[in-house]
């Protein structure tokens, strides 16, 4: 409620600003809007997705030069496209298409690699394009291109700064709102999950490569739109504002404002733009020389800010507000009831769900899994036990598609899935929890669980950005809330996942796994760190799931928990299966006793 | 193009490539040990060249005051941490005293010596003495407090430091370019091929530095400690290798390599306060070819960058930079196709 009021006040202030402010400030606001639009994309890319780009200024340049070249006519278009010449709006479309193509190529090259190749690749791309603008004579070289016509909106040419002002800020607000909508959706959760690590996100069925590409492309398109506006505001372009230096400035804006905060981008753009103006007057006078000395101050302040407050200025502002006027302690109601999501056809009780045939995994000379065989039926709980280092977790990775066996075969409901990757296996109906909890600590319990239901929705990025996904979103959240309730975390629905105790976090992972509507559940040490009562509740839950026909495979060290619960036990030692059978049989098996207790003379 | 021109271009390419190779090695070293992408590597190059030029011109370069300032700041942080009795506070012992004595000694040297008439080796030594301590000092002030941060934060901090150092370079050295007298000003003739002795000198020093690094990392305890820290930070820490020491030592080496590179190229080209960035980026291209981990591949890649740059300067001089930087694309493509990467949290 308060945020709505704040937003309304902000929009009202924006609307009246040109009427009351002197022209200098309107121009300043224009630039803040243009920079903010670029910074917004970086917030999504850097703050939310954990990737970064120094090439945003080059995308701005791409937008600006495309419209400059087309609308002034220095680049001749083939006859059949003559109608496209001289129209800024068509030039915008052309610029966006060009940017899309470049971003897709750059992304395809760098996004599959580890985090550092994207920034380095974008530095190289930014420099190359800058030199290209400067050396290409048709585009005016270093002198630039003048005579860019104004944009016409409903027949009115936008010639003055205060006319452009409304167009610029309309772009900014639309971009900010759609970004915010996107983040608060199924696709947004997939993007935010990128920071929790690729393995977790992929195991929940998120196509992480695609999510990365999506945010990189969005950031590039927003930068391109900013360039288009810039060209028609200035009515002139030259290469200098598209150099790497500006790419770095944009990143500073996003980080200073508070990477990860949509409104922080605008705050950062505002602060940096105003501070730059001010320092550019102050420092040369102070030092008695001219030069870009403000960069010394910016660099130093940014280092200090990152050492002190990683959430930037916006984080600082919200903390202060929360202290001065703490929000009313009111827990939001659980998601409203919605039509339940469709469930997959379940295998009949007793059908073989998972089968491992002679699965072997070597790491160099070490044989971590040696010709392991395993069969798991619907409606059965199977425990995989063994001393530390026996190869249980490696086996888990082979079964869930995180790793590929050196030889052997894994069948899921009769279908070979060896080496298919965890995303494909998740789609078939396998869900898992992790030995080391992998949650997104800053997201709520509900949202964390909703990530597990990722594959049960299908609405895309555009639908999310324009809120066409609300019906499906309500169903997803209702399902997530149901699973949270089921594992007994109802009272923590809106708490940050990172604030839960370790045992509760493990339970949360089970809820997340259940949200995927699996027919096979792989649980890696689910009882570790749980208190006695919590273990009892967990056992109860697993029995209930078994009753519903779920197949459950668990790795566990807590023998009391295992022996009272499971149907069958497989014991591993040194990568091999040394025993299999009913809990009581296994406990009497001499090979098992030897593995656990050492040989008896 | 005839043989003579090709030989000349190859000579240029190899000379520059040797410098890029040094920088690429230093970038890989710093990255593997500290996870920092040392974007400011190029500033050490520019500072080295410009300080050397200032000394040869007999100017009392203000860079000594930068050194004094950083020493004072670092000492001040130590004192504050001690006053707050923070657990991270270092013990104020002779090392701390050294922090106060060293800058005073250098101030005395810069203001007392007849800089322009010193023998060249003394000038180089003074340049190194002025600039190399900046490496560990910057690590102490900038990176040490956030050594555990994500690689992304470290990268952004690197960029911020780079931007600040360029600004400081402008403040200290001014906007003008500078170039120094060569170490050796002779032309050697091998049949039809003429070789600048300075070029040979650059390649020789680069090879010497590389050999020294090789011996250090292969044979000495400290070198092995750094390698251990690069391979497994936590494991090295448990074995008593201080991450602070590892960080400072790598930054010391990086600064040494950077400044030395600056001194070496200063006679061959004009260096401005902001020239370092483009030079170090070419080192980055080299180190990317080495995947940011392999030293020989990085050095080889950097040599290749130097050669491509020299030959494209001949064939398409206006597009020289574009060609060098788009070279990165096939490299990335190759890396992207060959690496099967299961990346996860650090």
Labels describing this entry:
heterodimer, A: 601 residues, alpha/beta, ABC transporter involved in vitamin B12 uptake, BtuC, Rossmann fold, 3 domains, six-stranded mixed beta sheet, 23 helices, B: 346 residues, mainly alpha, two-stranded antiparallel sheet, 72% helix, globular, disordered C terminus
Number of domains of chain A: 3
Total individual domains of chain B:
1
Estimate percent helicity of chain B.
over 70%
| Number of helices in the DSSP assignment of chain A | 23
Rg for CA atoms of chain A: 29 Å
Number of strand segments of chain B? 2
Taken from the alpha-carbon principal axes, the silhouette of chain A is elongated
Strand order of the largest sheet of chain B: 1-2
Largest sheet of chain A, order of strands side by side? 10-11-12-7-13-14
Order of helices and strands of chain B: HHHHHHHEEHHHHHHHH
Major beta-sheet overview of chain A: 6 strands, mixed
Judged by helices, strands and strand pairing, the structural class of chain A is: alpha/beta
Strand content of chain A: 5-15%
pLDDT below 50 for ≥5 consecutive residues: which ranges of chain B? Answer: 341-346
Our estimate of the beta-strand percent of chain B is under 5%
Task: Write down the Rg of chain B.
Answer: 21 Å
Number of strands of chain A: 14
Shape of chain B: globular
Q: Could you say what the CATH topology of the largest domain in chain A is called?
A: ABC transporter involved in vitamin B12 uptake, BtuC
């Amino acid at each position: 409620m308060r945020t709505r009021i704040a937003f309304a006040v902000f929009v009202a202030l924006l609307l009246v600003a040109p009427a009351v402010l002197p022209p200098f400030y309107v121009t300043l606001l224009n630039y803040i809007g243009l920079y903010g639009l670029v910074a917004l994309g970086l917030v999504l890319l850097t703050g939310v997705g954990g990737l970064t780009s120094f090439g945003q200024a080059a995308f701005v340049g791409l937008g600006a030069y495309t419209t400059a070249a087309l609308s002034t006519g220095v680049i001749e278009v083939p006859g059949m496209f003559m109608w496209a010449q001289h129209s800024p709006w068509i030039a915008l479309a052309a610029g966006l298409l060009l940017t899309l193509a470049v971003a897709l190529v750059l992304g395809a090259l760098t996004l599959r690699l580890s985090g550092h190749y994207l920034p380095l690749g974008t530095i190289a791309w930014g420099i190359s394009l800058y030199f290209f603008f400067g050396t290409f004579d048709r585009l005016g070289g270093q002198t630039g291109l003048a005579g860019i016509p104004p944009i016409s909106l409903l027949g009115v040419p936008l010639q003055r700064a205060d006319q452009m002002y409304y167009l610029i800020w309309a772009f900014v607000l639309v971009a900010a709102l759609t970004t915010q909508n996107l983040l608060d959706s199924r696709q947004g959760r997939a993007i935010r999950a990128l920071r929790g690590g690729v393995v977790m996100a992929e195991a929940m069925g998120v196509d992480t490569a695609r999510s990365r590409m999506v945010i990189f492309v969005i950031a590039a398109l927003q930068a391109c739109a900013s360039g288009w506006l810039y060209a028609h505001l200035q009515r002139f372009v030259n290469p200098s504002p598209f150099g790497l230096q500006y790419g770095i400035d944009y990143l500073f804006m996003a980080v200073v404002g508070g990477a990860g905060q949509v409104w922080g981008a605008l705050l950062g753009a505002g602060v940096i733009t105003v501070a730059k103006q001010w320092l550019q007057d102050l420092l040369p006078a102070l030092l008695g020389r001219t030069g870009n000395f403000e960069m010394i101050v910016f660099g130093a302040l940014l280092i200090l800010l990152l050492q002190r407050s990683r959430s930037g200025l916006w984080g600082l502002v919200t903390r202060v507000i929360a202290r001065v006027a703490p929000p009313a302690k009111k827990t939001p109601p659980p998601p409203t009831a919605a039509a339940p999501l469709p469930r997959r056809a379940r295998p009949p009780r007793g059908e073989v769900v998972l089968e491992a045939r002679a699965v072997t995994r070597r790491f160099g000379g070490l044989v971590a899994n040696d010709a392991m065989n395993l069969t798991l039926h619907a409606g059965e709980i199977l425990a995989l036990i063994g001393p530390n280092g026996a190869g249980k977790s490696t086996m888990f990775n082979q079964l869930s598609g995180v790793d590929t066996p050196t030889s052997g075969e894994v069948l899921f409901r009769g279908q070979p899935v060896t080496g298919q990757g965890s995303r494909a296996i998740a789609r078939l109906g396998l869900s898992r929890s992790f030995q080391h909890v992998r949650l997104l600590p800053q997201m709520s319990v509900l949202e964390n669980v909703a990530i597990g239901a990722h594959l049960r929705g299908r609405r895309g990025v555009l639908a999310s950005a324009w809120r066409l996904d609300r019906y499906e979103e309500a169903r997803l959240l209702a399902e997530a809330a149901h699973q949270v309730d089921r594992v007994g975390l109802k009272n923590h629905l809106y708490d940050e996942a990172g604030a839960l105790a370790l045992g509760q976090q493990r339970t949360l992972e089970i809820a997340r796994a259940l949200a995927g509507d699996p027919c096979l559940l792989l649980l890696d040490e689910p009882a570790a760190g749980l208190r006695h009562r919590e273990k009892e509740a967990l056992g109860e839950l697993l029995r209930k799931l078994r009753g519903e026909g779920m197949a459950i495979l668990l790795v566990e060290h807590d023998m009391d928990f295992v022996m009272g619960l499971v149907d069958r036990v497989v014991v591993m030692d040194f990568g091999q299966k040394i025993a299999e059978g009913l809990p009581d049989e296994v406990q009497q098996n001499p090979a098992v006793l030897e593995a656990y207790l050492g040989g008896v003379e | 193009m005839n043989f003579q021109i090709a030989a000349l271009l190859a000579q240029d390419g190899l000379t520059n490539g040797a410098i890029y190779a040094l920088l690429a090695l230093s970038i890989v070293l710093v990255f593997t040990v500290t996870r920092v992408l040392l974007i400011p590597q190029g500033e050490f190059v520019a500072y080295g060249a410009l300080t050397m030029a200032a000394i040869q011109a007999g100017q009392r370069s203000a860079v000594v005051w930068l050194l004094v300032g950083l020493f004072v700041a670092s000492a001040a942080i130590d004192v504050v941490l001690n006053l707050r009795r923070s657990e991270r506070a270092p013990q104020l012992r002779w090392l701390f005293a050294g922090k106060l004595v060293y800058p005073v000694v250098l101030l005395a040297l810069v203001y007392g010596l007849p800089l322009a008439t010193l023998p060249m080796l003394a000038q180089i030594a003074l340049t190194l003495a002025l600039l190399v301590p900046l490496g560990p000092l910057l690590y102490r002030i900038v990176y040490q407090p956030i050594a555990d941060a994500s690689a992304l934060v470290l990268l952004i901090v690197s960029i911020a430091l780079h931007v600040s150092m360029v600004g400081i370079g402008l403040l200290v050295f001014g906007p003008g370019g500078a170039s120094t007298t060569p170490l050796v000003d002779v032309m050697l003739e091998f049949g039809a091929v003429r070789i600048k002795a300075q070029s040979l000198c650059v390649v020789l020093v680069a090879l010497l530095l590389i050999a020294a690094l090789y011996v250090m990392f292969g044979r000495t305890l400290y070198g092995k400690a750094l390698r251990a820290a690069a391979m497994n930070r936590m494991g090295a820490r448990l074995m008593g290798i201080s991450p602070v020491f590892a960080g400072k030592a790598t930054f010391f080496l990086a600064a040494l390599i950077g400044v030395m590179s600056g001194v070496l190229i200063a006679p061959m080209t004009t260096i401005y306060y902001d020239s370092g960035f483009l030079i170090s980026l070419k080192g980055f291209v080299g180190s990317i070819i080495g995947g940011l981990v392999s030293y020989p591949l990085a050095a080889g890649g950097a040599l290749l960058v130097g050669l491509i740059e020299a030959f494209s300067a001949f064939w398409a001089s206006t597009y020289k930079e574009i060609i060098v930087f788009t070279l990165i694309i096939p490299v990335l493509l190759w890396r992207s196709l060959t690496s099967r990467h299961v990346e996860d949290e650090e």
